[in-house]
């Protein structure tokens, strides 16, 4: 039998390190995407909307418009705040029907 040389052991060690790093990153990203999926499931279930990309996008747009309305009220722009808030409430109520 042939004795294992230095380069064989070095290659084996490097391979083991690479395998450990890949398994570690796979575990982290699997847990992250699992947690993100659970979060979106809970969010959409509590709001009563579909768990689709379109529904989440409309929700984010509605919340951004609502945030703009609140910022308008804080800048003392009453008319702009009312308009933006009504548009945001229209979008969010349409989404939740």
Provide a brief overview of the structure.
By secondary structure, this protein is mostly helical. Helix content is 86%, strand content 0%. It contains three helices and no strands.
Architecture blueprint of SSEs:
Blueprint: H1 6-47, H2 53-74, H3 78-96
Q: How many helices does DSSP assign?
A: 3
The separation of the N and C termini measures 75 Å
Provide mean pLDDT, rounded: 88
Radius of gyration: 26 Å
User: What's the β-strand tally?
Assistant: 0
Give the biggest beta sheet: none
One letter per element, helices H and strands E, the order comes to: HHH
Beta-strand level of the residues, as a percent range?
under 5%
Secondary-structure class? mainly alpha
Question: Which residue ranges are poorly predicted, with pLDDT under 50 across at least 5 consecutive positions?
Answer: none
Q: Based on Cα principal axes, name the global outline.
A: elongated
Helix content: over 70%
Q: How would you portray this structure in words?
A:
The chain has 97 residues and is mostly helical. 86% of the residues lie in helices and 0% in strands. It has helices at 6-47, 53-74, 78-96. The radius of gyration is 26 Å and the shape is elongated.
